[in-house]
């Protein structure tokens, strides 16, 4: 006798479906962040409204994807076009959350799965804003680093394998910021033909990061960061910038690494790790300081600020985004994300040259793409690489 097959819906399948539905809802909120964060608007008030006619949106206007489709991509009230980005962001978030729930079962990974969903949202929102404004808001990245460290603490307490614990999250954040800021430092130095910066930031900025690179190579990450922050305090006490030539700091780091490779000091690997982590710590301190500094002056009725500072330089949103990725994924997957980002950026750049396109895309979206690859397939790719090396 034939027994009819009855499909069983397992708890894991139900969680994947639930995660996908949750992602659609979070994607709708992500669109709010993409629109309001660059404009400095409150993300909670006023309630959702049409950006063209300001009419408050009803419940039927806010159903992810389906509202856009049913309205034909136009506002119900003023018929102004609604960007296709809205349903795309919602769909991508739903698919991303479902994929994370499938690869990192919440019943097994626990808080770690939720943390990866938070990371996915930060990456998607940051990329969309970067494509629009060529900036990544501090309001997104700096709390993102803190959340990554918090989830690292939760992962460690729950004994989650494959995701960083508290120490791993801190190390990943510092190395993430340190690698990108070091590339920026040496790249800028070369492009300036080894000339000094015209206006070093007061009281803390790139000079302190360069000093932390050199000090961290010899003293380790925390003492190196302490030296960089001490330099900022000296500037405050002197009420001016005490210049430190980059030939001494950046040039000194290159000499230090060569000495380390020859067997002097702690050794080349430890020196590079210490330098990058120290620079990452100081760069995050810079990010927090300048974020608070600019917020205070924006709120002070446009008060004039006589501090000479290169705003585009001190933004370094990619540095803070790399710190977020390192905090959530750990240093190994961070390095994989950087490799993927560099290759993707290079391919896109070559394609632009071939098509003679003048569209400019910053590094943030490529870094986010690399992070998604590292998130979803990092374990298998890193395992294959280790097997190839016989490790």
Key structural traits:
391 residues, mainly alpha
Structure description:
With 391 residues, the chain is mainly α. 70% of the residues lie in helices and 0% in strands. It has helices at residues 11-36, 66-70, 85-103, 106-109, 111-133, 138-158, 166-191, 206-219, 221-238, 246-261, 268-299, 311-315, 317-329, 331-355, 363-389. The chain is globular and about 65 Å long. It comes from Deinococcus actinosclerus. Residues 117-235, 244-350 form the Prepilin type IV endopeptidase peptidase domain. It is a multi-pass membrane protein. It is found in: Cell membrane.
How many helices does DSSP assign? Answer: 15
Rg over CA atoms: 23 Å
Structural class: mainly alpha
Q: Please count the beta strands (DSSP E, at least 2 residues each).
A: 0
Q: Mean pLDDT score, rounded?
A: 89
| String of helices and strands | HHHHHHHHHHHHHHH
How many strands, what sense, and barrel or not for the largest sheet? none
Weakly predicted, low-confidence segments: 303-314
**What is the helix fraction of residues, given as a range?**
over 70%
- Inertia-based shape: globular
| Strand content range | under 5%
Distance between the termini: 54 Å
Q: Assembly type of the shown chains? A: single chain
Organism: Deinococcus actinosclerus
Subcellular location: Cell membrane
Pfam families: A24_N_bact, Peptidase_A24
Membrane topology: Multi-pass membrane protein
